Amino acid sequence: MDKPVSLWSRIGQALAALARGEGLTAVFDHLRAPPERSVAFTIAVIALGAKMAKADGQVTRDEVAAFRRVFQIPPGEEENAARVFNLARTDVAGFDAYARKIAAMFGQGSEVLKDLLEGLFVIALADGDYHEAEDAFLEEVARIFGLEDCCFRAIRASFVPDALPDPWTVLELPRGTPLPDVRARWRELVREAHPDRAIARGLPPEAVRLAEARIIALNHAWEELRQGAEAS
């Protein structure tokens, strides 16, 4: 029986298929079919992560190492990941061109784009700081992705310590929403973030921990609001 081709080998194949002179943005035109969504997702996180690393003026070892926290890169596969990073870093195309291609591929406002934005937050915080340039970068990426401002603020509140993770923001609800409606919203968001759904919508298994982190944030928000309602 033939050994399955790894995600990282498939990424190498996708890069090798680029015509001479084509930039990395062209790879997203070749990866629209659902079987290759996990490849496209991984390339998108690395490519936008590389652009964001330039946004704060430096590429640190911490930011490069952050890819290993989002993805489990097996020994011997680092070259394919590094090639994506370096292609994006040196590509003349701006990050907005990448973001538009990625949004068109997955569909504006889709859950996959929320997953992708969360991966970028992990990378942004890898060095222990969240810079203004990174915040502006991620806010613009979210806008191009077609994600509502409340969604961007909810994700930021879940990842950035200084963003004050207000539970209403995390659950994307107006302050004072009745508790039964809060419970219904919490359950809806937890269902959307379930790892099985994450895999079904194209996340590679290596990145499912992003969905798990979202569930933790949602549960904390629900518990805070539930306990506050019971105490009042």
What does this structure look like?
The chain is mainly α and 232 residues long. It is 65% helix and 0% strand. Helix 1 crosses helix 2, helix 2 (37-55) packs antiparallel against helix 5 (95-106) and helix 10 (179-193) runs antiparallel to helix 12. The radius of gyration is 18 Å and the shape is elongated.
State the end-to-end distance: 63 Å
Number of helices: 12
Total strands: the figure is 0
Low-confidence stretches: none
Main structural class: mainly alpha
* Helix/strand order, N-terminal first: HHHHHHHHHHHH
Quick gist of this model?
The chain has twelve helices and no strands. Helices cover 65% and strands 0% of the residues.
Descriptors for this entry?
single chain, 232 residues, mainly alpha, 12 helices, elongated
